[in-house]
Design a protein that fits this description.
The chain is an alpha/beta fold. The protein has one domain (6-194): Flavodoxin domain (Rossmann fold, 3-Layer(aba) Sandwich), CATH 3.40.50. The protein has six helices and six strands, in the order βαβαβαβαββαα. Strands 1, 2, 3, 4, 5 and 6 form a six-stranded parallel beta sheet that branches. The protein is globular, with a radius of gyration of 16 Å. The two termini are 30 Å apart. It holds the Pfam family FMN_red. GO terms for molecular function: FMN binding; oxidoreductase activity.
Length: 201
């Protein structure tokens, strides 16, 4: 059994000027803290050195020395996390390049850990971005959970107080997602403790 709260990294994926993701992330991180199962750490990619140019050495063989010094605190947070939530917009039927860069710079940090998604966009609510992220995280040996939270027409979905207009519906969906993250996070934490997960390349 875990001896304390699970470490949950909530990743704000948008780095766009005027981004709405800060509103969504602040709301969700607040609910995650209230849930009681998690120690929440918000990871803002706009505040991290995240080059698009990768080193010659593949991530599977890379060491910390190959990562920019400004990225190391973020890498440490990912490695320490028991679970992740990715907050993503949808750009052109997909997810932001910043998220792909984050994933590609790391490998073992995602392994055998659960990943949940909160998305926002136009009519689809960002779900096309989420479906593509599920494929990417599967390659990283992460376990994406079924239920998430999506905000179609996000510009109409939140009030001036930074909370969703449909408090009951979105709050209920967020709780289902957090309950699943807590279950998977605990189960995989114990599994990694008993048997380190080292898949063949």
């Amino acid at each position: 059994m875990t001896t304390g709260p699970l470490k949950l990294a909530v990743i704000l994926g948008s780095v766009r000027e005027g981004r709405f993701g800060e509103v969504v992330t602040h709301w969700y991180a607040g609910l995650a803290r209230e849930h009681g199962a998690f120690e929440v750490d918000v990871v803002d990619l706009a505040e991290t050195e995240l080059p698009l140019v990768l080193p010659e050495t593949p991530p599977a063989m890379a060491t910390e020395e190959l990562r920019p010094a400004g990225m190391l605190p973020l890498s440490a947070k990912l490695a320490a996390a028991d679970a992740f939530v990715v907050v993503t917009p949808e750009y052109n039927h997909s997810f932001p390049a910043s998220l792909k860069a984050l994933i590609d710079w790391h490998l073992t940090e995602w392994r055998a850990k659960p990943v949940g998604f909160v998305s926002y966009g136009a009519q689809s609510g960002g779900l096309r971005a989420v479906e593509q992220l599920r494929q990417v995280f599967a390659e990283m040996h992460a376990a994406t959970i079924r239920d998430g939270v999506a905000f179609p027409n996000y510009w109409e979905a939140f009030g001036e107080d930074g909370r969703p207009c449909d408090t009951e519906g979105t709050g209920g969906a967020a709780k289902v997602m957090l309950d699943e993250l807590a279950w998977w996070g605990t189960a995989l934490h114990e599994a990694r403790r008993k048997t380190p997960y080292n898949p063949q390349p």
